[in-house]
Design goal:
The protein has about 280 residues and is mainly alpha-helical. It contains 13 helices and no strands. The chain has one domain: MetI-like (MetI-like fold), CATH 1.10.3720.10. The two termini are about 40 Å apart.
């Protein structure tokens, strides 16, 4: 056995163990979602038994808990995610295309400001942001996507800019000769070429926005609007007692759509991230 083969097997074993460490908490949450509350408290890591198996009761309790319907939370999470991702993809792809093609001093400043925004911790701006959102009436599910656009623009512009630089100018010049305006060139020529980057950026933003707890909690009026993470946080009974079974059941329901989307699109995610980060 040569050194290359040995190192490859060692790396495979290492990453397999690392993957198992990441997946293990999800598996624990999954089988605990089918256990009774007392079974979870007495033995968190044991599998359900005849005495602790709760069937679908936890899912039913989680969905019907309290006076706030769970389907409202699903609706608001869906609205926020769809509007935010659509706004991020549209605005950042056009901004990246303009930055790459014009390449002026102002464009470079905007690009580096977007990159800088990626390293600014959310905790530094969250209190000012909450106050500003209230003053500008950005505290509803239909206006909070504007805030998500600001926080999601950094990574999206970085990936889109890297890919746009790899698109030959000859393609756009040919479109211009055929009579296309700049907007027609972007939407009819460049967007189809950027498909993999659109998918990768979209999935990354969906995973972030769908699971985000802190920003909606700070900005939205929680007596009227509750996203799924906020709904889960309010699964408390009298005296602050938490129904762990119902909580874990709703966590699984929250994770399931994202996991399915990720597995269906993971090939495009890897391709889009590599093309946006390496080329250009």
């Amino acid at each position: 056995m040569n050194n290359r083969s040995l190192s490859g097997r060692l790396l495979t074993a290492f990453f397999a163990l690392l993957s198992a460490a990441w997946v293990a908490p999800v598996i624990v949450v999954l089988y605990n979602s089918f256990k009774t509350n007392d079974g979870i408290k007495s033995s968190l890591f044991s599998l359900p038994t005849a005495d602790t198996f709760a069937g679908l009761d936890n899912f039913i309790k989680g969905i019907t808990f309290g006076g706030y319907p769970f389907y409202n939370s699903v609706f608001y999470s869906l609205v926020i995610t769809v509007l935010s991702v659509a706004l991020i993809l549209l605005c950042t792809s056009m901004a990246a295309w303009y930055i790459s093609r014009v390449d002026s001093f102002l464009c470079r400043v905007v690009y580096y400001l977007c990159i800088f925004s990626m390293v600014v911790p959310f905790q530094m701006v969250m209190f000012t942001l909450s106050n500003t959102a209230d003053r500008l009436s950005l505290n509803t599910p239909y206006t909070i996507p504007i805030i998500y656009l600001g926080f999601g623009a950094g990574l999206a512009v970085f990936l889109f800019t890297g890919f746009v630089k790899s698109i030959p100018l000859d393609v756009e010049e040919a479109a211009a000769i055929d009579g296309c305006t700049p907007l027609q060139t972007f939407f009819l020529v460049d967007v189809p070429i950027m498909k993999s980057t659109f998918i990768s950026v979209g999935i990354l933003q969906i995973m972030w926005i769908w699971n985000d707890y802190l920003l909606p909690y700070l900005v939205l009026d929680k007596t009227v609007y509750k996203t799924i993470p906020i709904h889960i946080q309010y699964l408390q009974g009298s005296y602050g007692q938490v129904d762990y079974g119902a909580t874990m059941a709703l966590i699984i329901l929250c994770l399931l759509p994202i996991v399915i989307i990720y597995f269906l699109c993971q090939k495009h995610i890897i391709k889009g991230v590599l093309s946006g980060a390496v080329k250009g």
